[in-house]
Amino acid sequence: MSLSALCLGLAAAGTTGTAAHAAPASGTSGDSGYQTKIIGGHESTEQYSFVVSLQKQRGDDPDGHSCGGTLVSAGWVLTAGHCVTTTAGVNDPKLYHVRVGSLDRTRGGEVAGVKKIVVHPGYTYADDRGSAHDLALLQLSSKVSKKPAPLASRTPAAGETVRATGWGYTKATGNDPSQLPVMHREVDLPVLAPDTPKCASNETDGDAWGIREGDFCTDNPGGNAGTCGGDSGAPALSKVHGRWQLAGVTSRSVGDCASTPDIYPSVAEHRGWIRGTIG
After folding, report:
1. What's the whole-model pTM score?
2. Which residues of 214-228 are buried (b: 16+ CB within 10 A; e: fewer)?
3. pLDDT (tens digit, 9 = 90+) per residue, 109-139?
4. Most C-beta atoms within 10 A of its C-beta, which of 29, 184, 196, 255?
C-alpha cells in the first residue's frame, strides 16, 4: 500500500501515491485525499503540552480526528497545508476545532474552535503529487493556556534523529477512522541527507511525493517504521539541550507507508513565515 499523503481524507488504503494525510472520512465534503500514521512506534511516554488533534464532524462523530498539529503560540496551531485544503481551495475554518495538550484525543487538554486558516503562499494542493511548503497556520477562536512548542532554529542534519508523533493508523491496512488509536504515539527516525535518491523518488510514483525545497527526509528503520493516515500535520521533534523543539511537520511518504522515506517541511526554513503570520 502506498499512502504518500498522510491525512485522513478520501483516499482509500491501497491507493498508490498518496501523501501523509489526514484521517480518512466517510466521503464528507471538504476532506483532503491525504493519509498518515505511526507504524513501528509505541504510545507516548511523556506529556507534550503542544500536541494538537485537529478535529471535525466525521459521520456520527463530531470530534473525528482529521490531522495532527502543534501549538506554536497561545492562539495559533501549525499543521500541514493539505490537511485544510482541496482542489477547490481552502476549507471553511468553521468545520474544525482542536484539542490541545492531551495524549488522549477524545478527552482532556483544552478545546478551541478555528476562526482563520492561513496556508503557506508557496503551497499548491494536488491529489496526485506533493508540494513544497506544505504548511498551514490555524488561528484559534480563543487562546489556550498550554505551553507552545519552541521552533527549531536549524533543520535536522543527516545522521540525527527526530521523533515523529501522532494519532495515525498503526498498520498499513484499512482506511477506517474508527480504527485510529485513541492514545498519542511516537517513533524515533533517522534523518537522511536531502540528496539521498530514495528521498526523491520511488519506482511506483517517480518523484510525485519526493523531497522539495525546504523539506527534510527520514528513513524507516527495519523497513517497517514511520508515518502514514492521520499523522499529517503532526510534529516531528528534535531534542536540544534536553528540551523538545518543533523541527518539522509531517507531510507525506515518498511511496509505501513505513517502508519508504517520510518527508517534512522544515520549521527552521519557514520560521520567517510562521512568525510573520502569528505576530
Report:
1. 0.90
2. bbbbbbbeeeebbbb
3. 999 999 999 999 999 999 999 999 999 999 9
4. 255
